Amino acid sequence: MTGLDSNGRPDRRPAISICAWSPSYRAWDPVEDLSGEPWNPPGARTLATPGDASAETLADTLTNLLSGGECSALLLVGRTVHAGPVRVQMRAENRRLGEPGRLDSTSPSIARVTAPVADMLRDLTAAGVPAIAASDAEDDAGSYILFRVLADIPDNLESPSIGLLRIPDGTSETIVRTAVKTAASAMARRLAPLPRSVVA
Q: What distance in Å separates the CA atoms of residue 197 and residue 100, rounded to the nearest whole number?
């Protein structure tokens, strides 16, 4: 899915989907001015994906966006149960949502994110947002969706950049916006422009 650039040519910028998975999480809004146009990181386009569906449906939607080539990257955004710094989750566990047991008996027990975690942490720190890499997978919809997307991406698809940003309760909206924009921009730097055959 591509649009046109300011000169009327096909927009070859890769798209990054930014999705707050909890419908009650309103601190991130991609539209910040009266134009109605979403914020875009340098070199990429933002595909704002509403998080108002069930975790199962949202996982399917996001997987289809990536598998169908509508976006090249995914940044999940939501809360952490931990106080302190923003957390960049590095892995998700093979768990059912809200009950014990493995989600999928044939998938590995852990799936690791493909987003550039080191770049994200460096840029967040430089932007004045305390941040850490977290290896624990919190038992919630965010971890469930992350595992589902990582596990369901077809093997023949060039590995998209997939990450999860967790923000403590009580964080100001200004810090949330800075954290999301910074993390998305770090991911966007690693994305290649779309081939001409895709946008023709």
A: 45
pLDDT in tens, 36-77: 777 899 999 998 888 888 999 999 999 999 999 899 999 999
d(CA 104, CA 153) in angstroms, rounded, equals: 14
Q: Which two tokens stand for residue 27?
A: 């601190």
Cα→Cα distances 122→21, 137, 142, 185, Å: 25, 21, 23, 12
Q: CA 141 → CA 51, 98, 130, distances in Å?
A: 11, 8, 24
Provide the greatest CA pair distance for the chain.
54
Q: Is 62 exposed, middle or buried (0-12, 13-18, 19+ CB in 10 A)?
A: buried
The candidate with the shortest Cα–Cα distance to 151, out of 42, 44, 67, 87, is 67
Contact in structure between 88 and 179 (CB atoms under 8 Å) = no
